[in-house]
Amino acid sequence: MNDLQGSDQWRTRLGFMLAAMGSAVGLGNIWRFSYVAGENGGATFLLVYLFFVLLIGIPLLLAEFSIGKAGQLDAVGSFRKLAPKTKWYLTGLMGVIGGILILSFYSVVSGWSLFYLYKYITGAYWNEPDGGFGAAFGAWISNSYAPLFWQALFLGVTIFIVMRGIKGGIEKANNFLMPALALLMIIMAVYGLTLDNAMQGVKFLFTPDWGQLSNPQVYIMALGQAFFSLSIGICGMLTYSSYLKEKDRLPAATVGIGLMDTLFAVIAGLMIFPAVFSFGVDPASGPPLVFITLPTIFESMPLGNVVGIVFFILLTMAALSSALSLLELPVAFFNRTLGWSRKVATLVCGVFIFILGIASSLGFGIWSGVTPIGDNGILDSIDYITANIMLPLGGLLIALFVGWYLPKKRAARFSEIESQGLTSVWYFLVKFVIPVLMIVIFLFQLGIIDYLIELLLTM
Ligand code: PHE
């Protein structure tokens, strides 16, 4: 075992909160939220999403934090400590694998963001390149080597920070990244709202089309987005809370983090959709939304080049603060459960993730014929498996662990909620409501409920 075990902690509770917010606010709020909301009905999606965040997301986040803080160890170690001689640690192991998988494609998209930042700084994208932004983006991502360089650069920075540990690396970085991010985002949203036709975007985001509520796809995607965006179900938040000092309480921090993440998603929507509408772009244009449509928009905006630089700085910083938590998750496991030094663990995980990520990157070029799930390419397939299957499954297991494995008294004590009434509400949600809702959505996802309905109708 080594020196860092147990001794490295957040310096302050605020530092922990900023880091956890940093984990939550990321490409998920800007890149993923905007295209998933765009494809799934805008305001209706937002409504279902908010409902899931409040009912499932925040209570589960507290459950995850409770396990980490009580266990004081990494994803696997904490479960082993709280539930010795059981298989519950597999939940943590699935999280470690999930973290590695997510960061493998996350770093590819982050690399694109870094590259776009570079293009804006050099002025190359201030004017539409030959053939348009769509073609330029398509040509760029289908390259075999260049995107790998930017992915490696991004991962290099992530590795550099995680190697320095919690207090000296991750906390310090987030203390700077998060306030800067909040400021830039508010400036961008206010600017977006001053554009012509901005109200149409606001309407798209806030006026639900009630008919969409009967579409199960909206629920499946909103649940996946809630998990992805709050970073829950994967034990990354558990890992972060394990570095808390005993005196730092969980509940208020949890609610703060959940609300901030949601606020950021809404602000990102306010930043993107008004612009999308004011320039007549299809909000359902999918994953390339921020890389194709936004540059088109920036070009025709007053001061668009400055806006472009600011936007891609923001996107890259948001991605970085999330990547830190994704890398810390396996690093903590190798460091604390397997006893590797933090340096070696960080390097080995980082390099492994880079190699794995090559597949996601090549999936847009020479491997574009590889479609593991439906007609989804490699990146989208890994995104789907992690966000829509592994994260919700991890969340379900965490709810079952806290609600059914731990004795009620212990669970209540770990949650640190002071009021008896609130403890009961939280416990009821975690024990019954969340598992039932999640199982129903899983059954929908697997098509089992559709099948049963059809069966009933034909009887
Ligand atoms: N929440 C991050 C985002 O919104 C992604 C993430 C998922 C980070 C899971 C850590 C764990 O971009």
From TrEMBL:
Q: Does the keyword Transmembrane apply?
A: yes
Which Pfam families does the annotation name?
Answer: SNF
Tell me which GO cellular component terms the UniProt record holds.
Answer: membrane
Q: Where in the cell is it found?
A: Membrane
How this chain sits in the membrane, per its record, is: Multi-pass membrane protein
Question: Which SUPFAM superfamilies does the record associate with it?
Answer: SNF-like
Ranges annotated as spanning the membrane? 12-31, 43-67, 88-109, 148-166, 178-198, 218-240, 252-277, 309-332, 344-367, 387-406, 426-453
Q: Which UniProt keywords apply?
A: Membrane, Transmembrane, Transmembrane helix, Transport
Q: Which PANTHER family match?
A: TRANSPORTER
Can you name this protein? Sodium-dependent transporter
- This protein's species is Halalkalibacillus sediminis
